[in-house]
Write a structure and sequence with these properties.
By secondary structure, the chain is of the alpha/beta class. The protein contains 11 helices and 14 strands. The protein has helices at residues 11-22, 39-48, 62-71, 87-92, 94-112, 149-166, 200-208, 236-251, 272-283, 307-313, 321-335, and strands at 2-6, 26-31, 53-56, 75-80, 118-125, 170-177, 179-181, 215-218, 230-231, 233-235, 259-264, 270-271, 289-292, 301-302. A 7-stranded parallel sheet has the order 3-2-1-4-5-6-11, sandwiched between helices. Helix 1 packs across helix 8 and helix 7 packs across helix 11. The protein is globular, with a radius of gyration of 19 Å. The relative contact order is 0.15.
């Protein structure tokens, strides 16, 4: 079966392509290379022995999206990662996020709605919960007002998919994941921010290798055990495997509703300082950091209740925080040569 992976050269997308190819799927990748490199294709091929098909395409170009689907009528499923993903940047440039995250989703769904059958996996986020009232967060938690334009695009995206599935042959699974970290154990692919990292772990590893002078820890006065923000950090390989399981569920018609939703996380919250200490343990070196002001749009705490994914999908995160930090550090050292 041919599966389209949009944003397939990105961090989570590339790891998911590896898992799809390992499971025998034929993959075609769309990516505009705005936050990744063509070298990722070589990494995927090195791990799997297969070069996935690739087209450089900006999904904001509606005509090019239409042309792509005309040329690839045999696509059985879509895993949609393509989106801008930094909370802070979305606060500074909301229109970029609304254009890139909403328009592209609409254009892909417009093509899928013409099919007699379509399976769609959506890369959603725990940001849809805002600052949840209760931890751990279940899928039934009320959707709070989004704390950032990025979070809002994920809320709106979910609503668009639910509305579209009601009146089309599209079946969808919304995967709300928490904080993906780490890299493939081969160190052939990993997180590759082209500019200043927006996420914690690449900032840690870049500081560890000397690319950055020190790490800024945003907020030291949160109402948490050590004063720093708490998140649920999940190894990207565990996350990628969940996408393949969810896709197979739709292709095998085992879904119990037109749209299903699952949290993907470890079920454990870790503070920023705990992540730093995990890095220090696996790297054997002290990390220079300083506590600075909180960032606008950041919340105090978010970690998942994963019972639903554990029981219904039969998926559970297997890899530890230290294993994730070790793989991220191995990847950082490899790319810096």
């Amino acid at each position: 079966m041919k599966i389209l992976v949009t944003g397939g050269l990105g961090f989570i997308g590339s790891h998911t392509v590896v898992e799809l190819q390992n499971q025998g799927f034929e993959v075609i990748i769309i990516d505009n290379l705005s936050n990744t490199s063509l070298n990722v294709l070589d990494g995927i091929a090195a791990i799997t022995g297969i070069n996935p098909a690739f087209e450089k395409l900006d999904l904001r170009d509606k005509e090019k999206v239409q042309d792509f689907f005309k040329r690839h009528r045999d696509i059985s499923g879509v895993i949609h990662f393509a989106a801008s993903k930094a909370v802070g940047e979305s606060v500074e440039n909301p229109l970029l996020y609304y254009e890139n995250n909403i328009n592209t989703l609409v254009y892909v769904l417009q093509e899928l709605q013409q099919k007699t059958e379509a399976s769609f996996i959506f890369s959603s986020s725990c940001t849809v919960y805002g600052q949840a009232e209760k931890m751990p967060i279940t899928e039934d938690a009320s959707i709070q007002i989004a704390m950032s334009p990025y979070g809002n695009t994920k809320q709106i995206g979910e609503e668009i998919i639910i509305d579209t599935a009601k009146v089309t042959h599209i079946n969808a699974i919304l995967l709300r994941y928490f904080n993906p970290i780490g890299a493939h154990p081969s160190a052939e692919i990993g997180e590759l921010p082209l500019e200043v990292p927006q996420n914690l772990v690449p900032f840690i590893t870049q500081t560890g290798i000397g690319l950055r002078q020190e790490l800024s820890v945003y907020g030291g006065n949160y109402p948490t055990p050590d004063g720093t923000a708490v998140r649920d950090y999940i190894h990207v390989v565990d996350l990628a495997k969940a996408h393949v399981i969810a896709l197979k569920r739709l292709l095998d018609k085992k879904n119990l509703a037109k749209v299903e939703t699952f949290n993907l996380g470890t079920g454990t919250g870790s503070s920023v300082l705990e992540v730093i200490h995990a890095f220090e343990k696996v790297s054997g070196q002290k990390l220079p950091y300083k506590i600075v002001d909180r960032r606008e749009g950041d919340i105090t705490s978010a970690y998942a209740n994963t019972d639903k994914a554990n029981t219904i999908l039969g998926w559970k995160a297997q890899l530890t925080l230290e294993e994730a930090m070790e793989s991220a550090w191995k990847w950082e050292r490899k790319i810096r040569g």
